[in-house]
């Protein structure tokens, strides 16, 4: 095992979630749980040489399905393009976008800024001439070979052009205990120092950056070729200093306590409800819930079923468990005493849509409180 960025063998285990089911396949509810359903190790390593946090190993071969773009992502894209334009970085005539399985494209927003976009080449994966503006919004973390991925983006960026690279910040992940950001298929988790090293190896450097609240902390970097006349702005030095601890294995390893703590709190909460004779269901069969349910070792005795608005998931079950997925209407009909919300952000939306369940919603904060 060597680093996906620098090739060094100095990898330190930062977070180990054990064997977790692949989060993109929800088996039919009637199909019995297979022993080999949960045999995909999920762990994060930190390279002691270049400081990149990365997926330790991935034996899953399935592709992440293109998701529906959430409104928060669309709003942030609009905000980001406006800020980049206002800072004078949207110059040039051509743009090329490296796509992301999470969906979302900035091409239309750039067209509104009078930048010509070539849609035929943008997402084809074929070699095309370099562009003045190269976009990568949550795309590059899906590349197993990080060194090669940065080289490809450097090659796609014209002389005097800019590479706009947006990622979920490792500092936000660590400081907010977002251990669930670790996923099969997500090969890299960036801090600015590690990113600078990756860019440098590809003949580029970060010249400036902007920060956003999306996902608790999202960074957009403008990178240029190393010999570009534009200076490196002070914000880069500041952000490198802020992120310095994120290249230390002990700092990133705090995620382990966050993961173990959340799984233990959830399990203990569910056992207390069960002992009190209360029926608990859950809402939201998102990928992140798959890892949480596996880590907490849940089954249908603790969680009656999980409701999800996605019709494609209904009639199926949570991978690695015997917990079936039902529709929101079925959830209401089941009359649960408590409904654990796997994504706290959904509370305003689901409580408005399912008024019959008022007073029964339970979020993470609530579970962490021992009196619950
Ligand atoms: Zn490395």
TrEMBL record:
InterPro entries the record matches: Methyltransf_Zn-bd_dom_put (IPR013630), Methyltransf_Zn-bd_dom_put_sf (IPR038576), MeTrfase_14 (IPR013691), SAM-dependent_MTases_sf (IPR029063)
Please list the residue ranges annotated as the C-methyltransferase domain: 215-353
> Which GO BP annotation is one of this protein's?
methylation
Record's keyword terms, sorted: Methyltransferase, Transferase
Q: Which GO terms describe its molecular function?
A: methyltransferase activity
Which residues belong to any copy of the Methyltransferase putative zinc binding domain? 3-57
This protein is called: Methyltransferase C-terminal domain-containing protein
